[in-house]
């Protein structure tokens, strides 16, 4: 799927609350590359303001299981141990790569490792974190989207995920959003030298 300059896969992981969505939103607008976000499917309920098909495809557990059985996912995982599933849709990735886009997967560590084991891809991998667990907790609490139970599960998972950051090519500390965005744009544009885009 990745031959003939037909786009690239970019994997971004990091603990919940690290600022992945914030940074990715900016990258899409500011990097000057044909980036697009792969919209994942999930069984979790939408937060206020999240739009089906834009933030995620929000599926019932039954719909999700059906799509798993049909082989529609490149990878799918239960994240945080709270019974909510998340999955990368093959179609999202294939469509983007075939159009020459750089397809961003904003996925957890388990999903990233599964894709790294898949030899069809040669992804650029980035791990984002805020530099400290206290700051992570502050961000999660001030986002006001999660219950205390969900915040605790996210913090526990965060500690485990941090242990995998060395499996990624690039570690980004998102202390200041502007700096993190600039650093990642620079990394991606440097990679372009190795893999010229068919689109730009
Ligand atoms: N493996 C996998 N993880 C995903 C996928 N989509 C989102 N995630 C991860 O699921 C976690 C939870 O996402 P979300 O419920 O939106 O909460 P947030 O990270 O606190 O904003 C994050 O670590 C995401 O990176 C996916 O398709 N596959
Ligand atoms: N560099 C930063 N400094 C301070 N707050 C940030 C920073 N980056 C993101 N945030 C805030 O932290 C919270 C979590 O960010 P979000 O992008 O939702 O994280 P993630 O997608 O990794 O779960 C949000 O309220 C966001 O506005």
From TrEMBL:
<feature type="binding site">
    <location>
        <begin position="14"/>
        <end position="21"/>
    </location>
    <ligand>
        <name>ATP</name>
    </ligand>
</feature>
<keyword id="KW-0547">Nucleotide-binding</keyword>
<comment type="similarity">
    <text>Belongs to the guanylate kinase family.</text>
</comment>
<protein>
    <recommendedName>
        <fullName>Guanylate kinase</fullName>
        <ecNumber>2.7.4.8</ecNumber>
    </recommendedName>
</protein>
<keyword id="KW-0067">ATP-binding</keyword>
<dbReference type="Pfam" id="PF00625">
    <property type="entry name" value="Guanylate_kin"/>
</dbReference>
<comment type="function">
    <text>Essential for recycling GMP and indirectly, cGMP.</text>
</comment>
<dbReference type="InterPro" id="IPR020590">
    <property type="entry name" value="Guanylate_kinase_CS"/>
</dbReference>
<dbReference type="GO" id="GO:0005524">
    <property type="term" value="F:ATP binding"/>
</dbReference>
<dbReference type="GO" id="GO:0004385">
    <property type="term" value="F:GMP kinase activity"/>
</dbReference>
<keyword id="KW-0808">Transferase</keyword>
<dbReference type="InterPro" id="IPR008145">
    <property type="entry name" value="GK/Ca_channel_bsu"/>
</dbReference>
<keyword id="KW-0963">Cytoplasm</keyword>
<dbReference type="InterPro" id="IPR017665">
    <property type="entry name" value="Guanylate_kinase"/>
</dbReference>
<dbReference type="InterPro" id="IPR027417">
    <property type="entry name" value="P-loop_NTPase"/>
</dbReference>
<dbReference type="InterPro" id="IPR008144">
    <property type="entry name" value="Guanylate_kin-like_dom"/>
</dbReference>
<keyword id="KW-0418">Kinase</keyword>
<feature type="domain" description="Guanylate kinase-like">
    <location>
        <begin position="7"/>
        <end position="189"/>
    </location>
</feature>
<dbReference type="GO" id="GO:0005829">
    <property type="term" value="C:cytosol"/>
</dbReference>
């Amino acid at each position: 799927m990745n031959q003939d300059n037909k786009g690239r896969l970019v994997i971004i992981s990091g603990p919940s609350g690290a600022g992945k969505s914030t940074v990715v939103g900016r990258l899409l607008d500011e990097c000057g590359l044909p980036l697009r976000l792969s919209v994942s499917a999930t069984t979790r309920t939408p937060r206020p303001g999240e739009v089906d098909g834009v933030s995620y495809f929000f599926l019932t557990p039954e719909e999700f299981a059906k799509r798993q059985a049909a082989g529609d996912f490149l990878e799918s995982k239960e994240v945080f141990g709270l019974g909510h599933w998340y999955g990368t849709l093959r179609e999202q990735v294939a469509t983007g790569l075939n159009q020459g886009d750089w397809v961003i997967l904003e996925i957890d560590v388990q999903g990233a490792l599964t894709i790294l084991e898949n030899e069809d891809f040669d992804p650029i991998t980035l791990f984002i974190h805020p530099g400290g667990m206290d700051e992570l907790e502050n961000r999660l609490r001030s986002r006001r989207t999660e219950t205390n139970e969900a915040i605790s599960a996210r913090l526990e998972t965060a500690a485990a995920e941090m242990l995998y950051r060395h499996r990624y090519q690039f570690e980004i500390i998102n202390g200041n959003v502007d700096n993190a965005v600039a650093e990642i744009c620079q990394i991606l544009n440097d990679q372009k030298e190795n893999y010229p885009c068919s689109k730009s």
